[in-house]
């Protein structure tokens, strides 16, 4: 089956490096069909071209004047449908940071045709996964200590609003999000059940409900599968929760 062309944006502050990538992309076009949609010398230029050209892949140097490659990747990953980022740099020490940013690959200069081919193949698979995946399976994007983490939505037990943040809880740990509960509820329709004005629980993680002991009539609490924490159900939401759970 014929592969579609990958639309590629090349970002590097050095003209010889941009020319080298242009030539390499031409060399590997038979194995990985591609078309260059633009060249940029820094992150600011790249963001403008991403808006104008909607590339599938961004090949980005890391050390550039102005907005560098790391900052560019952070900006792109905040978008709903970001292009796949591949770092190209002479500095191997950035490799760990690159993968913390969830970039597709990290190519050390001088970039070789074989490595570029492999990286583009990985990028193509990521693009296909994004285009075919249901939006309800989109991972949560979490900014944390200069890194962007992608948290699989299937691993989230509940989402709870606390002051100005929303906490996403998995079995392992908590993550702080900047998005509102209402936005998250709309983004993942049917995945979460609202049990309180400040709490959404993953429907498939609910094991049942129980009354809270020693509290008069007692509130109803959600019992989670393989997790000890109990979550209170508000009086207002209890009729809806009871109906949805068939109680």
UniProtKB/TrEMBL annotation:
Q: Domain of life here? A: Bacteria
Classification via PANTHER family: REGULATOR OF RPOS (PTHR48111), TRANSCRIPTIONAL REGULATORY PROTEIN BTSR (PTHR48111:SF3)
GO CC annotation: cytosol; protein-DNA complex
Full protein name: Response regulator transcription factor
- SUPFAM superfamilies tied to this protein: CheY-like
User: Keyword Phosphoprotein on this protein?
Assistant: yes
Domain HTH LytTR-type, residue spans: 140-247
Please give one Pfam family short name. LytTR
* Positions of modified residues (4-aspartylphosphate): 61
A molecular function (GO) held by this record is: phosphorelay response regulator activity
* Gene3D superfamilies listed in its UniProt record: 3.40.50.2300, LytTr DNA-binding domain (2.40.50.1020)
GO biological-process terms attached to the record: regulation of DNA-templated transcription
Ordered alphabetically, the record's keywords are: DNA-binding, Phosphoprotein
Q: Which residues form the Response regulatory domain?
A: 7-124
What are the transmembrane regions?
Answer: none
